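User: I'm new to structure prediction. If I give you an amino acid sequence, what do you actually give back? Let's try with this one:
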Amino acid sequence: MAFMFLRETIRTYRERDPAAKSSMEVLLCYPGVHAVMWHKLSHGLWRRGFWLLGRFSSHLARWLTGIEIHPAARLGRRLVIDHGMGVVIGETAEIGDDCYLYHQVTLGVARTMTGKRHPTVGNNVIIGAGAKVLGPITVGDNARIGSNSVVVDPVPPDTTVVGIPARPVYRRLRPAEPHFDPYGMPCDDALDPLMRDLEDLRTELHEVEARVARLARQSSSSQTAAE
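Assistant: Good question. You get back a string of structure tokens that encode the predicted 3D arrangement of the chain. For your 227 residues, that looks like this:
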């Protein structure tokens, strides 16, 4: 079972990272692989009630890889953590299958509370570098979170969000063929949500100005005809 897990993880890294030249390179030189492998040990200790050992094991992994994963967190299959330095995954976080996280991603809490405090991330989700996903929210399947975004509201499936706070830039009406969006950014030149709203307001203003000018000309023509 462990061998199958390692083999599919290495295969996933090689498929998604063009810099990976060989399976041995991925196994020896990719901290994301090391962190996930170590987490399996820490998580196993935690589930068996060895909480201190689980925490100490995860602490060693953080020291060696720069990636902090709480031993209670639940990780899906074929998780890729690219570069990895500064990634933080909290205690009650859950991550689905085939997800991709870049460096400095945080799955954290929005406020102090008990119980479920961290996000639940669906399948095939990409979270860009520096993004913060906070609170017990759900990120739907196939979602994309742009770099440096701060997400505090649920993200629907098949949706890309960017900004602070994060807002949707577009949503596919039907899931397209599986594809990869580097750093969680859409492939097209979608505008930042705030800039898009400003452009919409500017367009509406021009339409109102044109309508007022047209009404003014009609009023002037009516007055001239009356005279």
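You can read the tokens as a compact description of the fold. Here is one thing that stands out. The CA atoms of residues 181 and 188 lie 10 Å apart.
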